[in-house]
Design brief:
The protein is an alpha/beta fold. 45% of the residues lie in helices and 16% in strands. It has a single domain (3-242), classed as Aldolase class I (TIM Barrel, Alpha-Beta Barrel), CATH 3.20.20.70. It has helices spanning 9-19, 32-42, 60-70, 82-91, 118-130, 143-151, 162-165, 169-188, 220-242; strands spanning 3-7, 46-50, 74-78, 95-98, 134-139, 156-160, 192-196, 213-218. It has an 8-stranded parallel β-barrel, surrounded by 7 helices. Helix 2 (32-42) packs across helix 3 and helix 6 (143-151) packs parallel to helix 8. The longest helix is centred in the last third of the chain and has 23 residues, at 220-242. It is globular.
């Protein structure tokens, strides 16, 4: 059965919009641990969190709190830096996904160029695997990148589905063909095959033609839908509570 990893980064994005400098405030919300627990109740198989170098959303403490409280496998997304390797070796997540990171980008814009960074990435992968984590490479669906991921010792690949999600017509079909071809090569090489980025409730089923997929990592779409389908109940609860106001004292 295809597994679901839920990325809860953007729960932290909402919190940081107001409490970036007051994270110890009792009013800091939403609580990322509560989000992880809700995802678990909803049927998530793992929780994905990305601590970026600029700490724009998830903080180091968040990941440790979620790992302690949620009891689901953690997929720790990170850049291949000494700082992040040190965090991962303290955290001991079940999975680490190495991603490219550009401080100017809003979100990850493409796959990691593994073939051009083999030696550096090989050292990172080795350290993480020695620390007990399985390691995935977030890559564009290109055979060269799949093979390079295998060469440096990765356990898995996560195929970047952003180009597919942002395309239409014949280009979209070409992107699906690329994804399927990359998945086949990955499977043939003994790599686990995951996918993520831009997957939503509308395009999900189009990916069902890709063979050998084990897990999809989905975040923004799930958090966006949660905002829409959850606000009504939140407002209803507030209205009920406010009905207790008597006015005269």
């Amino acid at each position: 059965m295809l597994k679901l990893g839920v990325n809860i980064d953007h729960v932290a994005t909402i919190r940081q919009a107001r409490y970036a400098t007051m994270l110890d405030s009792k009013n800091a919300e939403p609580d990322i641990v509560m989000a992880a627990l809700a995802a678990r109740r909803g049927g998530a198989d793992s929780i994905t969190m990305h601590v970026r170098g600029d700490r724009r959303h998830v903080q180091e403490e968040d990941v440790f709190r979620v790992k302690e409280a949620c009891k689901l496998p953690i997929n720790f997304e990170m850049a291949s830096t000494a700082e992040m390797v040190a965090i991962a070796l303290r955290l001991h997540p079940e999975f680490v996904c190495l991603v490219p990171e550009n401080r100017q980008e809003i979100t990850t814009e493409g796959g990691l160029d593994v073939s051009e960074q083999k030696e550096t990435l090989r050292a990172t992968v080795g350290a993480l695997r020695d620390g007990g984590s399985k390691v995935s490479m977030f890559i564009d669906p290109e055979e060269e990148q799949v093979r390079a991921s295998r060469e440096i010792g990765a356990d898995m690949i996560e195929l970047h589905t952003g180009s597919f999600a942002n395309s239409e017509g014949s280009i979209r079909k070409e992107e699906l063909t690329r994804l399927a071809a990359a998945a086949r090569v990955g499977s043939q090489l003994g790599l686990g095959v995951n996918a993520g980025h831009g997957i939503n409730y509308d395009n999900l089923e189009e990916l069902f033609g890709i063979p050998h997929l084990e897990e999809l990592n989905i975040g923004h779409s799930i958090i966006s839908r949660a905002v829409m389908i959850g606000i009504e109940q939140a407002v209803r609860e507030m209205v009920v509570m406010m009905a207790g106001y008597g006015g005269e004292q």
